[in-house]
Design brief:
It is a single chain. The chain is 36% helix and 21% strand. The chain has 184 residues and is α/β, with parallel strands linked by helices. The chain has two domains: 5-38, no CATH class; 66-183, Rossmann fold. A hairpin with a 3-residue loop joins strand 1 and strand 2. The N and C termini lie far apart (46 Å). A five-stranded parallel beta sheet has the order 4-3-5-6-7, sandwiched between helices. The chain has a two-stranded antiparallel ribbon with strand order 1-2. The protein has helices at 5-18, 74-86, 97-106, 123-131, 151-159, 172-183; strands spanning 22-28, 32-38, 66-70, 90-94, 111-115, 142-146, 164-167. The protein has six helices and seven strands. Helix 3 (97-106) runs parallel beside helix 4 (123-131).
Length: 184
């Protein structure tokens, strides 16, 4: 196996699962490994020149909602950005809490998606500093994004000033549901 192949597989797994598919593996010690995936796409028949519509599984959203995505992992950033843009959200992505604070002071956001563990300034410190800002900045909804999925991790995020919690890998439906809950 080539160096770094595991990262490529992790990325493929995330994209395939985001599209509602499954990935599998057939491996033989002497013959190598074969990876396969299954995706099902609906057949859409539209009359000519029909206006484009969102897939039925994606709920309607309020236009113009701005989301600040604070995530240091580029793959996670791209996945979350693609999901949010697909449902009509305007997304600005930054890589750490310090950059997030600067952006919040420069322009208004309807929602912050905050990774908890980042270099420079982690999500907990950034949330604490946002909550210490004057109104209305201190009232921006913050959804924690974390790889930790234990119940006490959720409580730690809520006690740290975040309004909600989403564990990684991010589920498309869970992300959309929480964004709608806090930004619509």
């Amino acid at each position: 196996m080539a160096l770094g192949a595991g990262l490529g597989l992790a990325i493929c797994l995330q994209f395939i699962e985001l599209m509602g598919g499954k990935i599998g593996l057939i491996s033989s010690k002497e013959h190598g490994s074969t990876f396969h995936f299954d995706l099902t796409f609906p057949v859409v028949q539209q009359p000519e020149k029909a206006p484009p519509t969102a897939p039925a599984s994606l709920p309607a959203v309020r236009a113009g909602v701005k989301v600040l995505l604070v995530e240091d992992n580029r793959v996670n950033q791209k996945v979350a950005e693609a999901l949010l843009r697909k449902v009509g959200r305007h997304v600005v992505a930054v890589e750490n809490g310090q950059d997030a604070l600067q952006h919040i002071h420069q322009e208004p956001y309807d929602l912050v998606l905050m990774d908890c563990q980042m270099p420079v300034m982690d999500g907990f410190e950034a949330a604490k500093q946002i909550r210490a800002m004057p109104a209305p900045l201190c009232n921006i909804p913050i959804i924690a994004l974390t790889a930790h999925a234990m119940s006490d991790d959720r409580q730690k995020c809520l006690e740290g000033g975040m309004d909600d919690y989403l564990s990684k890998p991010i589920s498309r439906s869970a992300l959309i549901t929480l964004v709608q809950k806090h930004a619509d």
